[in-house]
Design a protein that fits this description.
The structure holds two protein chains of two kinds. Chain A is an alpha/beta fold. Chain A contains 15 helices and 13 strands. Chain B is flat and about 50 Å long. The chains are: A alpha/beta, B mainly alpha.
Amino acid sequence: MANYKLPISQINQLFKNKELKPSELYAETFERAAITESIIHGHLELFQEENLKKALNSDKRYEKGKNLGNLDGIPIAIKDNINISGYATTCSSKMLSNYISPYDATVITRLKNEGALFTGKTNLDEFAMGSSTENSAFGPTKNPWDTSRVPGGSSGGSAAVVSAGSAIASLGSDTGGSIRQPASFCGVVGFKPTYGTVSRFGLVAFASSLDQIGPITNHVEDARLIFNSMKGHDPSDATSLIESKAKQPKLKNAKIGIIKELMEDGISEDAKKEVHKVAKLLEAEGHEIVEVSLPLTKMSISIYYLIAPAECSANLSRFDGVRYGNRVSGSTSSEMMELTRANGFGPEVKKRILLGTYALSAGYYDAYYGQALKARSMMKKEFTDVYEDVDYLISPTTPSDPFKFGEKSDNQLEMYMSDLCTIPANLVGMPAISIPTGLSSQGLPLSVQIMSPSNTDNTLLDFSESLESLVAFSDKPVINGVVS
Amino acid sequence: MADKIDIKNVAKLASIKLNQEEEDRLESDLSMIIEHFDALSKMDLPDDKISIHPLGMSLNLAEDIASKSLTHKEALSNAPESKDGQFVVPPSLD
């Protein structure tokens, strides 16, 4: 196996044993990027030259046995809606094409403290709004498994670069499945932590009550390592959780619920088969599998597409051409703002801002946004009640395997439905992970999603690691004749 | 069936200038999405306590003490136009 596909703990051991240097791994990762980037377009910007010195400094630390942390010398890609001081943060939008961040996001500070190196910034659907990266102002990312297909979104670049081997791991953000859905489409692991466990400070806000930063990795243990390096209370984020003790689900002889409503119409036979296959494996290990009903999950698309656009319409009001953004001149301030926003935002972003503005406007607030908030509270109660009986929930991550470019871009509701299985975790705040488990009848990656109660992230990761071993998914994409 | 969307008014509220083609397309797209919300808007849901935080937590306010933040120069570093340490915008009135 290539070094860039090894678990981080093994790479770390190679560094400590002086069998591999961080600068050598860094070079290997960029050699891989030189092959894959022209085909995949996962990175918007590569930091090769700037970080070489940092890789050499990491070499020296390992030589002295004084590495900063477990991520010292590990090349990690960062979604381009997370601020790194001194680098562009474009959110894949024309609006911010010239924006240079003057500060680090808290997650970046924490990864830097661990010694992580950054490969560059990765592509996304503009302002994280989309499920395919087709909405990027800088062109789409392609799926490493089949370049005629989307890598998913919005963190499509972050998932594709890990799958292709041009980064050891990456950070994404997940508002309705934007880490897990692309991870599934690209055959890698994607983890959305409990809301509030990882600081959102420095993440360009889309929908503040749903957004969460998390890792995309080749192995579950890497996701655990990166999550634990980033988590913890941050006074700069008012929604950041102060760590509290929660009842943990069982690791042995656990009870696992298959969500009935996520195994019905709209879910492909391949995706259902994958869940049943995994359920059988778990049963053989002594776990109990039951079917559970969570009726409001059927409403989750409607709830999400009211709450997320409402929050986005407020959050994106800051892009008005005054403090940042590509300004278009106007004779008055209001004309300048209207023209700046008309020119800077792409079609999907405009649509969601207008949808949110409508849902919040006088006369419609109670019927739409207010109703969505009530349904969200009810949905949370449904999940809390089910977790009284089961330890984990399981579903497909996505209704189907990766779709082709253009296949859903003309049918907005069908595109939105691709997040059907992932949205509930954002609405109720619980942790959820996508684990690749097999290939579809078309030879494309499929995954299952495991969810657990809020604040049980590390137990979910432990359980997922044992599931990962049981499934033993080892297929990799072939790019330009080379297996990743 | 939801009311017809007054797209010009919504665009005005959102401060986004739309051309005719965008107005037509967005009016149709938004109408389709809002129709999809019909079932939710008609549900009989209890007026439970609603929390914006998905875990129902109250927001943690930072202590009211001075701490390190952006410098004046950094805050202005991405401004389209600035003068004498201030953001410059066109006049508010014609």
